[in-house]
Structures are given as structure tokens and as C-alpha cells.
Design brief:
7-stranded parallel beta sheet
Length: about 500
């Protein structure tokens, strides 16, 4: 069974900015055009997206690189559409070169004027087009540009960023001092990886992609750094066989729920049932048996004989509500030892990740999934949380390699890595930012494991199911106040309506 997307369309991949700069010229040549034609196409694509703002007066902010050339082309098209447009530059005396100079000349020849940035120009516009800085920015934004970015953000005017929001590192998504907070960003040739996760996802606003008609050539030249996935990327599990039974869909053991934290493993185990696991057993602290089992008779719950429970199971998850006391440590050690010796699939989450991080030389099952948030990932890799967030693509791969596992790095633009490949979940809502949401994800991934999917398949599909369910819940009732258990019915519906 293979659920992972196999299409080679450039819009499904993400790239490093250097890859795009390195290969776009050859891709353009192979497609029968030159770089200035690409600039014209970029300007035209930005112009088409500018139309959605229905602006009578537009302010175009330009710098001194090729990104400015895109801005000048866009401004020329707006002027030709008989709408008022003002072009403001960072430095009026800065002379452009190459294709950017050619685009600037076209603007001037059409009767366009260039002026220094002013508060009046900002006050008078309906929309801002950001063409200040391109993908090559690596150092902190200079003060004169930072002043313009700050004013644009504080104006609360809608902003269309061309290629990347100015000030964002295109590879990491981190603002370099300050960055434009765009309403929309239209990016070209290949999707820059930093625009799809963490802070980059926040600053981008709505992300729009245009391959400028060279995508087929570009994808043949450049190796992507990751693949974008969403709920439509997957074929689904398909209908169940008529002669199947509960044992056909796995025996999942959920381990956790120390005294006082029963709710976490209850969410995990119930999510697993809703995601289709055939049978779900919970091993929990004796003091948590009643709160875990109450109202959910479908769960088999026990607080003793962990060895028997492990022998019963076909796969396991450990961590939600586990704690870090002696009971937790002993339980963790026994589970890791058993799963490693018997090659049992295992999902490690929450407190179990913190116990794993304390091991000097961890022994890991061959089929294992880790699901850390940035704080847990920082402990697994012995770095700070800020370092994790500063380069999520690099650290999720480091985590996968260090522990020989599939690693999920949760957050906006959740990343999944197996040591060789990286996947980026396009979906997900701030509605999921609530305690217990991660416990539900663990149960979904465990259930998919139980139903026969391999590590990467179960993890990628589970992450997208969880993220899409959060989107639906947030859109229906708002992002605040969602309970993780609100996802159960939505996950059940999604997993049954996706066609094979």
C-alpha cells in the first residue's frame, strides 16, 4: 500500500533560494525564453493578483535588485490599466543594473515617476506592493529599509509581496530583524522552503505560486528540499473488505496517563478508535484506570502486566500523560526494550520524548515515529528552542537521523522527515493550539500504523488528517475554544470520504 503522493509537478516541491537562482536561467533557456522574459512574467503575475485588491491608488516599494525589476514591471502594468500608482525607492540615487534597470527604464518611458519613500504616499494608497528585497537577503535588514517596512506594517494597508516578504530569510522563514507582514505573497519558479513553515508562514499571508511557465524544465534540473502535502495528496485507505474483522485493523496499545494526567492518554486512545484502529488497549497508572475508561467502554484499560499488553499488541504509542517519575521511567524502559527486540512499530510522544532525550545512547525500534514540538525537539537535539525554530528543515532531518526514526516537527507548517526526505504539511489552523491536540495526533498516527501503513505513510497521512480536521473545526466555530475531542468526528468523516 502506498499513500504518498507521486506527482512531479513543481508546485508540490519546496526549494532552497540558491537552487532557484542557480537553475532558473537554464530552465528559462530550455523553455525558450530569457531572464528578462521571466521578469516580465513575474510582473504580469503580480499584476493579476493585484487586481483582487480592487485598489484605486497603489504604492509600489522597490529596492535595488531584481525584485525591484518585478516591481517596476508591475507598476507599468497598473499604470497601463489607468489606475494611479506611485513608485517609491529606498535610495533614489542608487543605480540599477541588468534586467532591473531595463524594467525601470520601461517604467520611466511610460511616464512613470520615481520618488523617495514618504508618509504621504503611504497614507494615500489603498494597497502596497512590496518589491524591496529579494531572496538573496542573508544579513539583518538595513536601517533605511527597516524604517520603510515598519511604516508599511503599521499602516495596516493590505500588502502584496513579490517573491518573498521583504526581510524574510527565504530558506528558514525567519525575519532578519524586521520583515513585511504580507496579506498575500506571490512566489516564482519554485516555492521557497522558508515560506511554508514557522514564522515564514505567518509573514507570507496567502501564498500564491507561479512557475512562470518554466516549471517542467526547472523540476528536471533542481533537487527539491521537501515536498508539500495536503489532504488531497492522498488516495485514502479505500473501502474495507466485506469479510474483514476487528483483528484486520490492528491491535494498538496506548501507554501513558500517570496519576492526575489521565486525560492525555484518553484523547490518544479515543482518537485511535475514531481513526479506524480495530482494537485499542490502554496501559495506564492504576490511579487513572477509572477516568480513562469512564464513558468509553470500547477501550480495554489496565494498570498492570505491561508485558502481557505488549505481547497482545501489533503496535504501540507511548508518552501522553506518562510523566517522568519512577513509574514512567520503568514503563518507558520496558516498552523501548520490548519494541526494539520484537521490531514492533512505536510512536513516541510527549513525556516519553523527554525520557528519550535523557538517554546517552538510545536504542530505538526499527519502525519508530517521534512527534516533538519545538521544545521537545530542542531537548532531543541538545539545542535551544530558538535554534530549532531558526532552521526547522535542518533540525527535523537531524532529529530523524539521530534517532533513526520518522520525525514530526510540529507547529505552523508541520514538517515530517525520515532522514532522506522531508514533507511539509500545508494545512493546519491556530485552532489546534490547545492542550491535548498533540495527543489526538499521536492516536491518529498510531491507528494508521495499526492498519498496515509504514512509518512515513502513517505519519504523513496522520499529520494531514489532523491538520485538515483542525482547519474544518476552526472554520466552523472559530479558532478559539476548540476542544481536541472536537476533532474526532471530523477525522472519522475525512478518513471515510477520501476515495482510493
Amino acid at each position: 500500500m502506498s499513500l504518498l503522493p507521486s506527482s512531479s509537478s513543481v508546485k508540490q516541491f519546496v526549494y532552497l533560494a540558491q537552487q532557484i537562482r542557480e537553475y532558473e536561467g537554464n530552465a528559462a533557456k530550455a523553455s525558450g525564453c530569457d531572464l528578462f522574459t521571466l521578469m516580465e512574467r513575474a510582473g504580469h503575475a503580480a499584476f493579476l493578483n493585484w487586481k483582487s485588491f480592487n485598489a484605486q491608488q497603489t504604492l509600489v516599494l522597490v529596492g535595488s535588485g531584481n525584485n525591484a525589476g518585478d516591481g517596476y514591471i508591475t507598476a507599468s502594468l497598473i499604470k497601463r490599466a489607468d489606475r494611479h500608482v506611485v513608485v517609491c525607492v529606498v535610495d533614489e540615487n542608487k543605480e540599477l543594473t541588468g534586467d532591473a534597470a531595463k524594467a525601470q527604464k520601461r517604467w520611466i518611458d511610460a511616464g512613470g515617476e520615481i520618488c523617495n519613500f514618504s508618509a504621504d504616499a503611504l497614507d494615500e494608497c489603498d494597497v502596497i506592493i512590496d518589491a524591496l528585497l529579494g531572496t538573496g537577503l542573508e544579513n539583518t535588514v538595513r536601517d533605511n529599509v527597516a524604517t520603510i517596512i515598519k511604516a508599511a506594517n503599521e499602516s495596516t494597508k493590505p500588502i502584496l509581496s513579490i517573491d518573498v516578504p521583504s526581510g524574510i530569510n527565504a530558506d528558514t522563514g525567519q525575519p532578519l530583524g524586521i520583515a513585511i507582514k504580507a496579506t498575500k505573497t506571490i512566489t516564482f519558479v519554485g516555492v521557497k522552503q522558508g515560506l511554508t513553515t514557522a514564522a515564514g508562514k505567518q509573514y507570507v499571508g496567502e501564498l500564491i505560486f507561479d512557475d512562470l511557465a518554466i516549471g517542467e524544465s526547472f523540476v528536471e534540473l533542481a533537487s527539491p528540499s521537501g515536498k508539500l502535502i495536503n489532504i488531497n495528496s492522498f488516495k485514502g485507505l479505500g473501502p474495507r473488505a466485506l469479510n474483514s474483522h476487528k483483528g484486520s485493523y490492528g491491535k494498538l496499545l496506548c501507554i501513558g496517563g500517570n496519576q492526575g494526567t489521565a486525560g492525555a492518554i484518553r484523547l490518544t486512545s479515543e482518537a485511535a478508535l475514531r481513526a479506524g484502529a480495530g482494537m485499542v488497549r490502554v496501559y495506564t497508572h492504576e490511579g487513572s484506570i477509572m477516568p480513562v475508561s469512564f464513558g468509553r467502554p470500547e477501550l480495554m484499560v489496565s494498570g498492570n502486566n505491561l508485558q502481557h499488553a505488549l505481547e497482545w499488541a501489533s503496535c504501540a504509542v507511548i508518552g501522553p500523560g506518562l510523566g517522568q517519575d519512577e513509574w514512567a521511567q520503568n514503563t518507558f524502559n520496558q516498552v523501548i526494550e520490548y519494541c526494539t527486540r520484537n521490531n514492533m512499530p512505536l510512536v513516541i510522544d510527549a513525556d516519553a520524548l523527554n525520557l528519550l532525550a535523557k538517554q546517552a545512547s538510545p536504542k530505538m525500534p526499527t519502525r519508530c515515529v517521534l512527534t516533538p514540538h519545538p521544545g521537545e525537539a530542542s531537548r532531543l537535539l541538545k539545542v535551544t528552542t530558538a535554534e530549532i525554530e531558526s532552521d526547522r528543515f535542518s533540525y527535523v532531518q537531524q532529529c530523524a537521523k539521530r534517532y533513526s526514526a520518522v520525525c514530526v516537527l510540529k507547529g505552523a507548517g508541520t514538517l515530517i522527515a525520515d532522514g532522506k526526505h522531508t514533507w511539509v504539511c500545508e494545512e493546519g489552523s491556530p485552532a489546534l493550539a490547545v492542550g491535548g491536540s498533540g495527543d489526538v495526533l499521536t492516536g491518529i498516527v498510531g491507528a494508521l500504523f495499526a492498519q498496515g501503513l509504514d512509518c512515513a505513510e502513517a505519519t504523513c497521512y496522520g499529520v494531514t488528517l489532523h491538520a485538515k480536521a483542525g482547519d474544518i473545526a476552526g472554520q466552523k466555530n472559530g479558532e478559539r475554544g476548540m476542544l481536541p475531542s472536537d476533532l474526532f468526528c471530523i477525522v472519522r468523516r475525512l478518513i471515510n470520504t477520501i476515495k482510493p
